[in-house]
Write a structure and sequence with these properties.
alpha+beta; 2 domains; four-stranded mixed sheet; three-stranded antiparallel sheet; elongated
Amino acid sequence: MGTLAGSVLISRARRLLRDETSAVERWSDAVLLDALNEGQLALCGIKPDTVTTVATHDITAGSRQAIPSDGLSFIKVIKNANGYAPLPATESEMSGMVPSWHSMTGAAVERYIFDDIDNKAFYIFPTVTPSPGVATIEVMYGAKPTDLAADTDSITVPDEYAPALVNFMCHRALMEDMRDATNRTVANSYYEHFVALVAGKAQGETQQSPNTRGASAPA
């Protein structure tokens, strides 16, 4: 959750748009707030783990499990209710070793499988008999950002994404007047900068991740 108010980002966008004279503002605060909300969603579309949530999931019947309705993309299963941490696996690995894995049952989840195409769901092995509040797993997923209802509200995404959001807001504002060829060119430039900032943040996180640096589990 960020701490910057929407008004802060709106002011920054106005400076870039040269729209700071209140008497003759070209874009209203409402329009720029809509652009900010759209930018948060676009950001999470590019980087679904921007707003991560950990939730207790009641296991449902069958191998396929769905993340909550506020989710954008599954990330991982952390643990069973008994503390047992399942391992990730691919569909090809499971089908090659245990072709009937979708129908096998057990007391706890040992493996979880993610399909990039079906990113709001995941599969478990073995399947577990549903028992709300008892047969549960702890799941991490990327959630949808919450829209700002007013410019006094704080952004949902972390503050470090503010520069990217401001660029998206400028892009969206200029897109409203595409009759001007110059606006089209500048709008595209702002969008490219937005994408580059998000991609750069993702690359930096990967490089700094203990997993990338080779951290090992205790012996």
